[in-house]
Amino acid sequence: MDASITPEQAAEREEFYGRLTPGHMAPLWEVLKDLVPPEPKSKAAPHCWHYKDIRPLLLESGALVTAEEAERRVLILENPALPGQSRATGTIYAGVQLILPGETAPAHRHTPSALRFLMEGEAGFTAVGGERTTMRKGDFIITPSWAWHDHGNEGDGPVVWLDGLDIPIVAFYEAGFGEGYNDARHSLVRPEGDSMARFGSDLLPMDPVERYGKTSPIFNYPYERTREALTVAAKGEVPDPHLATTLRYANPMDGGWAMPTIASWVTYLSAGQETARMRSTDGVVIAVAEGTGQLTAGGETFSFWQDDVLVAPSWAWRSVKASSECVLFCFSDRSAQEKLGLFREERSAV
Ligand code: GTQ
């Protein structure tokens, strides 16, 4: 509002506002600029969680509480600017989950969708909607909305992964449901590999099926295949100045994003490669699958190593510089924003 008003006018307005309050009304003109900003101004801060800092604390939590008792033994990655809100970005929850040998994270289901990105351990498994999959380093695994799921570890070392969930989005819509199963593990109805065979082999079932609703029926995108695709793709192109070599995880049923609310993709950079600045309306979580380098986001620069987790907030300029060959696993709410017609991005001139 116009700051050139007299003290008398200001007092008159304050008196008027005071009479609006009891009737649960308020003057728009005092808050319009915040409600309808000229451009996004994220409340989230850019940040990097180093795996070397996360790991010892996560293992310590393993001695403090069992996976059974905790239900999910997870250290939440809280954005430093959003303490206590269980958010890594404005709209995405992230956490690091530990399963020790022989443990079970008991079966439950919920309307928030989850993704897992495997950091450590070769003998962890997750069961989703009646099918089990072994989880290996770099695998991208999906737990669709409302699918029963439990996790276990049949090896002799810790299994650790990054969880990404759309919890803040579901909470925004006040649409969250969740429930426990009547047993620690839910019933398996298909052999391991069934989803990959039917949906992930450039083949699809002849009759229409809807295995996981709006979510991809492939629920484990193995790193071995992803890495091979990136290696070959990187050889066959001049890398894009902003995207380097980036491939997105797709739902084979429609070619769209693998999950309805969370977009996920992988970026490959060769040693020394640097991307030009870009920004987008989705706050991005970046997990370092391989390599070392630096992320600059919102004017801050973070050095990263393998298994670190970084955040670039909405509409903050970001760029990456690879010190060694890098693979970055990224996710955001972009798939939801695109459906709502909200997504925008801007790329610097090159
Ligand atoms: O594995 O089901 O990090 O329900 C947070 C909530 C993981 C899970 C989280 C969850 C899960």
What does this protein structure show overall?
By secondary structure, the protein is of the alpha+beta class. The protein has 2 domains: 1-36, no CATH class; 47-347, Jelly Rolls. The chain is built from 8 helices and 22 strands. The strands form 5 sheets. It has a 6-stranded antiparallel β-sheet with strand order 1-19-16-21-14-13. A 6-stranded antiparallel β-sheet has the order 2-3-10-5-8-12. It starts with 6 loop residues before the first helix and ends with a strand. 2,5-dihydroxybenzoic acid is lined by residues 72, 74, 95, 97, 110, 114, 149, 163, 165.
Side by side, the strands of the main sheet go 1-19-16-21-14-13
Low-confidence stretches: none
Instruction: Classify the secondary structure makeup into a structural class.
Output: alpha+beta
What's the CATH first level of the largest domain? Answer: Mainly Beta
Number of strands: 22
Order of helices and strands: HHEHHEEEEEEEEEHEHEHEEEEEEEEEHE
Q: Give the termini distance in whole angstroms.
A: 40 Å
Oligomer classification: single chain
Please state the second-level CATH architecture of the largest domain: Sandwich
Number of helices: 8
The proportion of residues in beta strands is: 25-35%
Q: What is the CATH H-level superfamily of the largest domain?
A: Jelly Rolls
- The overall pLDDT average reads 97
Number of domains: 2
CA radius of gyration is 22 Å
Query: What would the CATH topology of the largest domain be?
Result: Jelly Rolls
**Structural shape:** globular
Question: What is the percent of helical residues?
Answer: 10-25%
